[in-house]
């Protein structure tokens, strides 16, 4: 038995966790273990986030599809949450360009089916485990307009970069008309209170130009399938 596993089992016994807590912790571990195994099957690519509710024929989904296509053309895996709307559009673009189109789906009360344009898929039970994999999968992060889920994913990655828990990697907010009001809130409300500083707002870039995303991914280049940036123990950032 691995020493770390044995130590963990000893801690469970010492803490006198009830069976429900033990079962819950095992479900957490299973989601994470299976997720890590999945993301080791493809090189780091570009994670694309956004609403599951926007019309598939609308401008944002069309733009997401174009982005997915261009990224795949340039050899970058496209990773999404695997659902409809923005996610489906990005996966479709990558799929039709013959690229790696990955969907990391989530089990929901109102069932969310995996979209038909993924070449690789996995279904998660927990949001937090899925977010870890969407983060570790990528070298570039892209956020299209979305709802609370998209904001949750954006703020999670933003604070990890802000606090040095992960490297500052390119983060794009697509849609100036959608994201500029949020940026103004940060500047006009949060910054004067010193809850954030001006440098924090430079972590992300607001743009309407999807070619900036492709250029950023190309600049980083293509990492080996066995070479994930979070494995680099010599880096000066704290690993998530």
Structural class of the secondary structure composition?
alpha/beta
> What is the residue-averaged pLDDT?
91
From the alpha carbons, calculate the radius of gyration and give it in angstroms. Answer: 19 Å
> What is the count of helical runs?
8
In the predicted model, the low-confidence regions spanning at least 5 consecutive residues are none
**Strand coverage percent:** 5-15%
Query: How would a crystallographer describe the biggest sheet?
Result: 7 strands, parallel
Helicity, as a percent range: 40-55%
Distance between the termini: 25 Å
SSE ordering: HHEHEHEEHEHEHEH
Question: Tell me, what's the shape?
Answer: globular
How would you portray this structure in words?
With 240 residues, this protein is α/β, with parallel strands linked by helices. 46% of the residues lie in helices and 13% in strands. The chain is built from eight helices and seven strands; from the N terminus they run ααβαβαββαβαβαβα. The protein has helices spanning 3-15, 19-39, 59-73, 86-96, 127-136, 148-162, 176-190, 211-220; strands at 45-49, 78-80, 101-106, 120-124, 138-143, 171-174, 205-207. A seven-stranded parallel beta sheet has the order 4-3-2-1-5-6-7, sandwiched between helices. Strand 2 (78-80), helix 4 and strand 3 form a beta-alpha-beta unit. Helix 2 (19-39) packs parallel to helix 5 (127-136) and helix 3 packs parallel to helix 4 (86-96).
């Amino acid at each position: 038995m691995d020493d770390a596993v044995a130590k963990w089992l000893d801690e469970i016994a010492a803490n006198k966790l009830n069976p429900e807590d033990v079962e819950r912790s095992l479900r957490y571990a299973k989601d994470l273990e299976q997720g890590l195994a999945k993301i080791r099957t493809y090189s780091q690519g570009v994670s694309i986030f956004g609403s599951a509710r926007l019309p598939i024929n609308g401008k944002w989904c069309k733009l997401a599809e174009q982005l997915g296509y261009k990224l795949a053309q340039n050899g970058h895996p496209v990773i999404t949450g695997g659902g409809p709307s923005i996610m489906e559009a990005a996966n479709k673009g990558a799929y039709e360009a013959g690229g790696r189109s990955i969907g990391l789906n989530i089990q929901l009360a109102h069932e969310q089916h995996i979209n038909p344009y993924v070449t690789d898929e996995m279904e998660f039970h927990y949001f937090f485990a899925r977010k870890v994999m969407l983060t570790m999968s990528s070298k570039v992060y892209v956020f299209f307009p979305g709802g609370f889920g998209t904001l949750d994913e954006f703020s999670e990655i933003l604070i990890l970069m802000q606090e040095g828990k992960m490297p500052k990697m390119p983060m794009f907010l697509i849609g100036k008309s959608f994201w500029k009001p949020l940026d103004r809130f940060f500047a006009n409300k949060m910054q004067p209170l010193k809850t954030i500083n001006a440098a924090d707002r430079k972590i992300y870039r607001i743009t309407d130009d999807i070619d900036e995303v492709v250029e950023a991914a190309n600049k980083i280049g293509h990492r080996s399938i066995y070479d994930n940036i979070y494995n680099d123990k010599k880096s000066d950032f704290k690993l998530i």
